[in-house]
Amino acid sequence: MKDVLGDKKSILILLGPALLVFTLIKIVPVLWSFGLTFFDGNPLGGFEFVGIGNFQRFFSDPQALSALGFTLKYAIVISIGQIALGYGLALLYVFVLKNASNFVRTVVFFPTILPTVAVALLFKSLFAVGDQQGPVNAGFQIIGLESVDWFATGDGTFTVAIIMELWRSMGFFAVLLYAGLLDIPDETLESARLDGAHGWRLVRHIVIPLSLPVLLSSVVFSANNTLKVFDTVLALNNGGPGGETTPLTLYMYRTVFSYSDYGYGSTIAFILTILCFLVTLFIFRSARRDNTTA
Amino acid sequence: MTTQTAIPVTPIRSAAPSGPTVRAKRPGGVGRFFKRAPVRVFLVVLVLVELYPLFWLLMGSFKTQSEFTSNPTWSLPEQLNFENYVAAWTTGSIATNLWNSVAVTVPSLFFMLLLGVAAAYALEIMVWKGRNTILLAFVAGIMIPGQMILVPLFTVYFRSGLTSTLWPLIITYTVMGLPLTVFLMAAYFRAIPREIFEAATLDGSGMIRSFFSIGIPMMRNAIVTLALVQFFSIWNDLLIALTFTTKSSLATVQVGLLNFSDEYGSTQYGPLFAAISINVVGMLVLYLFLNKQIMAGLAAGAVKG
User: Which family does it belong to (chain A) (predicted)?
Assistant: First the structure.
């Protein structure tokens, strides 16, 4: 029996192909890319060893720092929004709508599966000014406000990006957190109610602590995804105006494919990777501290 | 808390945590309606916020150029003409883009699931030294951003001339989906009693035969769920598709849509709206058939990923 369950030939046949392509296409490129961070140049013009020069360059490059700042700002604002809206909706589904929430859940979830490029182009039109006025500015005019040229400023583009991303993803986080809330035993909630916990007190002292694990994975998931934002901002306003809404991903992409700066591009990618690790680690650690003090 | 004296309370979830009025009187028709009114208003607003942009988009796809510029933006189209769709389909080369997306997504999904499920089976059901380390290596891959492997892969694909085919996309999607596939499938295999495979072994079945005749059939639902999750991440990807194809005839739907908006978007609103609508309606049809499974699948992928 042991022989069959540990049969070397079977293991090789079943695991071998996956392990081979994973090593060749993922592990080797990651190491290769890390190696490139110490070089300057590209395959055509040749590479030059610069040590940690690329990292020094990153932290004195205003465009890179602006991209880093935008990435962090975007990730923090959207993550907070996604979790807050998603959790609010999940509480609504479980405690107010109960079994009747099916239709609302289905409708609110639907934008999640839409391609981001399509959604970005749609929102570009919704907020448009000029001869093809979007409903948002038309609405502004009806209530007596001036039309806003949203995509002419970084703040305007950022605002549209936030509204769009929350519109697209709140239904997803609602379903995710809804599943977590359903796991809370009815008996626990009922006895808390008998003890006089209602409304906000019930949520604050019973529901939130009991749904902490799923809240935590949602935050990690949300932060990791928003740090990697790419297609949204590219399709919405191409990182503009003037690079004000360019995240690290897009800056890296341009560095490599517009300016053929492979070494520096790899450095930006590496810094993004480290950022994802640090943020995940930070969220886990701060959550653990909360658990022990509360 | 005055009314709750000696009445035995059955643990039901019907008492909403919304206020003390529930207990004081039996909620009558009118009172109940007004108490629920804010909730109703909120729900109507919520559903409108989610659906109106899509409705507006769909209506726009039937409008003529002059309707865009002269009529109010929320007016309905004067008639349902399909000219915009014809224009998007022919000049926008949407047909080619759709075909490319299908030609990339189907083989990527097939290879990813076959390799990933087999690997998870070898890592979870079979017993050998070092399997935990390899599983960990796969799982660590979930965290790595796509940008980290972009430059080396581009160099290799470009040098080998693969960038004039769809193979770079198929290969890259297959591998990028492996971490989540291996991780989730290993978790699902963990839930299957090991005795089933031991019994098959006693009956003289080898592990590879057990994989195909027991492992895969028992995992059918999990595989379908996972296939849906991965379908959306491949179909909706822009980064990989934009990087690894050099010809516009190889563009997938997302790349085509992006190029389309650059070339025609500023002047021809109708065809652009039609092109976006084709994307949205396609997903809507899929969603209407599979919404429960899609919701459950994406949620599982997120929490465990």
Answer: Belongs to the binding-protein-dependent transport system permease family.
